[in-house]
Amino acid sequence: GDRNATILSTYTAQNFYKAATITFNGSTHKGEIHAIGAFYGSILFKIYTDARTDKQGFMKVFMGHLQMLDSSSTFATVKQDLINVDNSFNQGRHRQVIIDEFTRRGL
Q1: Cα(46)–Cα(52) distance, rounded to whole angstroms?
Q2: Any idea of the CA torsion for 104, 2, 51, 81, to the nearest 10 degrees?
Q3: What are phi and psi of 7, to 5 degrees?
Q4: How far is it, in rounded angstroms, from Cα 82 to Cα 94?
Q5: Which one of 1, 55, 58, 107 has the fewest beta carbons within 10 angstroms of its own beta carbon?
């Protein structure tokens, strides 16, 4: 798969999930974890490089949200975690950028 963040930033969740299919021992699995991770990384990259983003402030959000990730995390919970951490560290400065990017990706 492609690892170019600029190219990945054009993918929606639905398209990427369908494309992230692997076959192992005769079984087909959708949502292969490495591909989904690349998709998630491209969302964070797009938020970070958005002109409205304070890069230093968003790095605090990024680092803070990592502590909240676990095996039950979904794109919806991660989006809310990012917003909550941003509220704590930056008084919600990046809220709209986060919402806009997740919405643009179909999430």
Answers
A1: 11
A2: 60
A3: -70, -45
A4: 9
A5: 55
